[in-house]
Specification:
The protein starts with a strand and ends with a helix. 42% of the residues lie in helices and 20% in strands. The protein has helices at residues 15-26, 42-51, 76-81, 100-111, 127-137, 150-164, 178-184, 226-233, 241-257, 263-282, and strands at 2-7, 31-36, 56-59, 73-74, 86-90, 93-97, 119-123, 142-147, 167-172, 187-190, 214-217, 237-239. It folds into 2 domains: 2-98 and 243-282, Leucine Dehydrogenase, chain A, domain 1 (Rossmann fold); 101-239, NAD(P)-binding Rossmann-like Domain (Rossmann fold, 3-Layer(aba) Sandwich). The mean pLDDT is 96. The strands form 2 sheets. Strands 2-1-3-5-6-4 form a 6-stranded mixed sheet. A 6-stranded parallel sheet has the order 9-8-7-10-11-12, sandwiched between helices. It is globular, with a radius of gyration of 19 Å. It is of the alpha/beta class. The structure holds 2'-monophosphoadenosine-5'-diphosphate (ATR). Residues 61, 64, 124-129, 147-149, 152, 173, 192-194 line the site of 2'-monophosphoadenosine-5'-diphosphate.
Length: 283
Amino acid sequence: MVYGLIGDPIDHSMSPAIQNAAFRSTGIDAVYVPLHVRRQDLREAIQGLRALKLKGFNVTAPHKVHVLRYLDKIETSAAAIGSVNTVINENGKLSGFNTDGVGALKALGEAGASLDGKSVLIFGAGGASRAIAYALARHANSVRLVNRTNSKSKELAGRIRGKFHIEVTHAPLSSKLLRVFIEQANIIINASSMGTDGIANPPIEVDWLRPDQWVFDIVYKPTQTRLLELADSARARSITGLNMLVNQGACAFELWTGRKAPMLEMRHAVTQGLLAMEHAESS
Ligand code: ATR
């Protein structure tokens, strides 16, 4: 059986390492391949995947939103989010799901962070942020969205408020109120691409953070982002993007196979993969 991942770029994805390790360890006779698909080729690529009878595939940037129009069925919460990252092919019928939200919830749960009655601040308003904000809004007391482009966080805030009837506010990343927002939050999540370059500092000062707060960064490369460094300096509790990556991959594996995901092997594969990548980049 063949599974795959479509996206652009695709070279540095850890998903092939994670899913192939899971297939190997569960004895499932399957392979997972990265497939570079440009935006203008998405429709033909989906037709091709259907014709080639791939059993399922993951979808990454920039296709998570556009892919919806080429699928036959979309699971309710993925439809509400408007973003799909996992597709199942059942006899030529393609069904779309989103495992980012569940992956984030599981990563928080594993770390021991409870959401009940908590105030959550989320950076970003893109595909991943949408999925995470929807998943968290079911449990949290309030959600605050902070994004570089204010119109996008405003739109997302409106949608979540309409659906969950909880307190949802939004602000631009450049807001002078960011300090107050950070101080008022119990859980701070970076669900944006901020920090992927490993160089730029987030617009946060270390003394805005406290040890009773959770700081969760979905960026997994670098593993220790500038935001997580700040969290460590402030002795706040931190959760790395690796936990999210493994958990969203595990949810996809379980959707495809109906089997329990081998978490340890998947986690080991991603740790090894990242180490190898960092080694290759430094030599
Ligand atoms: P994904 O599917 O991974 O969520 P996306 O939908 O392209 O990807 O969303 C990327 C998010 O990261 C957006 O919220 C984006 O902000 P804009 O809405 O302003 O584009 C945010 N983002 C990307 N680069 C950023 C940076 N350097 N600093 C802060 N936010 C950034």
